[in-house]
Structure formats: C-alpha cells, structure tokens
User: Which sequence fits this backbone?
C-alpha cells in the first residue's frame, strides 16, 4: 500500500487487499510533501476498536496485525509528526474493508479450508478493486450479487419472441400479408441471427 501525503491530506496511490488475520505482514509506504521534512513521523492505525502507533523508518512500516483481527470493517490510517515544538497530523485515511479469509472447497461440497494469503492476493490481483469499477465500498460478494441481479434481467429468445407476438400479433399461417410486413419465418430468421437459434 502506498499513501501520498501533502500537508494534512492523504491520497491512496497504491492499494493492497487486506485479509483478516493474514500471516504475511502488509507494508505501507508513505510519500510526504516537502513541508514534512525534518519531522519524526508516526503512523496511526485503527480498526475494530484497536488503535496502534508505529514509528516510521524511511517513511515505511508494516500494518500492525492487531488491527487486522476483525474482518468486514475498514482500516483507518493517519500520520502524526513532531519537529521540536512543532506538531502536525493528517486526517484519517479510510481504506477499503478488511476482507474475511476466503474458504475454498474444490469438489467436496463442504466449507473447505481457508485459502492461503498468497493465493488470495493473486486472485484479488486478477479481479482488481471493485471500488475502482464504481461499486463504492461493497465487498466482492456484494458486487457479484449485484452483477448477477442485473444480468438476470436479460430477456431470453423465447421471451423476445412472445413479446413481439403480443405486440404485433402473429400472422395467420394461411392468410396474406401486406408487402411491408415481415412473415413469421422472416422475423424468426432475424431473431435467430441476432440472438442465436433456440434449441
């Protein structure tokens, strides 16, 4: 994770997917504006009622594991600086939510064992951050449910055929049709070209 700090404002430059109770530490790098030169800096982390302070070494530190004990909540990060009698701090930077460990169960139908941190990071790296796709602070599960609901609103070929028949009424198989009206077969052929043939 990388956070840029200008005066008292924070900007997330590079995000990291945080997993509850991860065995691997999560490093954070801070990029400070010139007005922070000469300040001794301490990063503050808060999540789930736990607050921890870590003195920065070369503007870097690891996120304390104690702040990653509770999933489903965001991690908050701030920085406090001291230079002689002068003090300065940032506001809280709220990250995306700490994710619950994923469980995998390949072909067993059971709950499975928790997925390893490295495997989970690789999967999330491929998927990306849902918030960058306009999903705000929704979890991956919430994003998937929303997408499934929107996809399920798509009409099937049969539903489109039925709707067209209701709107335009199917022609009488033995009757004549005006020159500017498509026959049932022509409409079916057109729909098959657009939507594919029905089984």
Assistant:
């Amino acid at each position: 994770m990388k956070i840029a700090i200008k005066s008292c404002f924070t900007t997330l430059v590079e995000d990291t997917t945080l997993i509850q109770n991860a065995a691997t530490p999560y490093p954070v790098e801070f990029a400070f504006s010139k007005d922070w030169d000469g300040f001794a800096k301490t990063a503050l982390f808060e999540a789930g009622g736990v607050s921890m302070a870590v003195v920065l070494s070369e503007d870097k530190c690891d996120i304390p594991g104690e702040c990653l004990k509770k999933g489903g909540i965001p991690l908050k990060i701030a920085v406090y600086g001291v230079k002689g009698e002068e003090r300065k701090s940032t506001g809280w930077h709220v990250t995306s939510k700490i994710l619950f460990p994923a469980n995998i169960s390949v072909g067993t139908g059971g709950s499975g064992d928790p997925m390893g941190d490295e495997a989970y990071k690789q999967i999330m790296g491929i998927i990306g951050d849902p918030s960058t796709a306009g999903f705000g602070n929704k979890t991956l599960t919430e994003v998937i449910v929303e997408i499934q609901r929107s996809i399920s609103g798509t009409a099937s070929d049969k539903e489109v055929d039925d709707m067209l028949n209701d709107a335009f009424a199917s022609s009488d198989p033995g009757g004549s049709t005006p020159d500017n009206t498509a026959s049932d077969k022509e409409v079916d052929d057109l729909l098959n070209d657009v939507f594919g043939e029905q089984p």
Notes: The first helix runs from residue 117 to 127. The helical segments are 117-127, 140-151, 157-168, 184-195.
